Amino acid sequence: MRTDRLEAEKIYLRPITMADTDRIISWRNQDWVRRNFIYQEPFTKQGHETWMRTRVATGDAVQFIICDKQTDRPLGSVYFRDIDRGNRKAEYGIFIGEADATGRGIGTQAARLAVAYAKDVLGLHKLMLRVFADNTGAIKSYQNAGFVREAYLKDEILQEGVYRDMLLMAVIFED
Description:
Number of strands: 8
CATH architecture of the domain at 6-124: 3-Layer(aba) Sandwich
Order of helices and strands: EEHHHEEEHEHEE
Structural class: alpha+beta
Distance between the termini: 18 Å
CATH class of the domain at 6-124: Alpha Beta
């Protein structure tokens, strides 16, 4: 599998670079994006650059930018974090940063590419994710990409004075 550009019908994934920093910060600091992240603090340039140096550059994380195949316009990002090579597992994350790109199947296409990458390139046995239980659109997208529910965590995260439930979902690759 080619790793410099992963292609689907409408989108492709390309590796993130430091040149994407301002875009990532802008996307992640939008309320409608941040609401679905466990980490709620404002995203900073310093924080993102630290992530790039200490996680992406070291191989502890892998991150891609989701781009529109026809226009090359960046739309969001997918990433693998907490890559545990000994146990062959990692956590998956995704966000769409452009409002007009939501609800078009882009997240599902990106998730399918990510699942294939996790299996074929990273050689993982398990790819897991955490999603708020009320994020029904994301849950449906993850299911369409092959993720299944493993656990339901009641009152897992306190956000803006309200507890939110969370699902753990995963794909297990048979060896």
